[in-house]
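User: Mind token order:
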Amino acid sequence: MLFILTEEGAITMNGAKRARKTSWGMLLMGLALAVMMAACSNNGGGNGAGTASPGNTGVNSGTPEETGGNEDEEIAPEEGAKLVVWEAKEQLAYMQQVGAAFEEQFGVPVTVEEVAGGDQGGRLATDGPSKLAADVLTLPHDQIGLAVTAGLLLPNDLFEEETRANMVEAAVTASTYDGILYGYPKSVETYGMFYNKDLLPEAPQSWDDVIAFANTHNDPKQNKYAIMWEFVGYYSYPFIGSFGGYIFGDDNMNPNDIGLNNEGAVKGFTYLQSLRDILPMNAGDVTYDVKTQLFQEGKLALNIDGPWSVSAFKDKVNFGVAPLPQTPDGQPSMSFSGVKSYYVNSYSNYPIAARLFANFASSKENQLKNFEMTGAIPANIEAGEDPAIKNDPITSGFFQQFQNSVPMPSISQINSVWDPLKAAFISLWDDAGLDAKQTLDQMVTTIKADIASK
């Protein structure tokens, strides 16, 4: 069966990693109320005239159920389709190559426009209803909730089965909102364990291995330490999720179910307190700058950090990246992760062509090309198993850790969590006499009160 459509289809972290983020929630909340009255123009990213709203559920939506199709049947772009794709400066050359390849295969011209990654969500909110936005854009997973609520995104329906089969589970979960898959995973990031190969030819496999090494390496008078991590909520998750705790229930979508003081979380933070001997410093003294300098100087052997810090060590340290140390009972340590995915603008006049492009751009081959050109870590399972990734001493470690990660919560209530979690993290570390259960109970009470006040 051939799918041909001629009308438009219808169908974020405080105190976390050191990355830039642009707030656009207010734009989206306002748009959610006004979206049905938005005017539609005849130019811009929508590529032509059209009057259907994103709430349209008629035959023009092009969903498999409505057309009787499925992923095994042939899918073709609309006649005369042309697309606009937004891409950040650092990936512009890559996306231009993908666009050219897509046009060659499908006959659909693709115009790539430079829009900063942090600005694409806000631009979609303001320009989408007036058809000035791109047909396809990239969003971090913690921005999709508000975009979906405002009716700005089309579900990934035509390629859902393919996406679920080909992408790492955490990437699929991160690209899903309220049980519906919207994204086409593009790249992933999480933190891992940088290790100095001159001090440790092989990375430690467990916390027991780290402790044993620390007993021979640590020399605080010489600023020599085995391992460091920043004492912010983002990096505390291994001591939560690895032991049976969690932030919110239902895949971090239910703020009424907080798992930060359950039996697992208490066990994890109690274990954290036991590690004080291998890092005899107060939490406030372990900053990003301190541990970065010590790792560069060869005094810090293990540094828990993310791919955003790789450039600080290249050509300065002989290092690799490995997954986080296993828990005492041999379980993988769980980290927080972030996922960037392609999304289709619900106001696109060419929703089938846009879906085809998003799926095409997220293929194994194109994710490997993205890695080759920009260093972006793939979300595709087979791409992660490719020799280009597996044999890379840095990227392979992050990809392995991502497979044991949980996407950062994307609901707004997470903003009530970061500061109390950081405070508990620091208090339990600095004062070994504090009772973990009592401290975590107080923290959860604070979180609930803040959520209720908003």
Summary: The first helix runs from residue 25 to 34. The two ends are 50 Å apart (CA to CA).
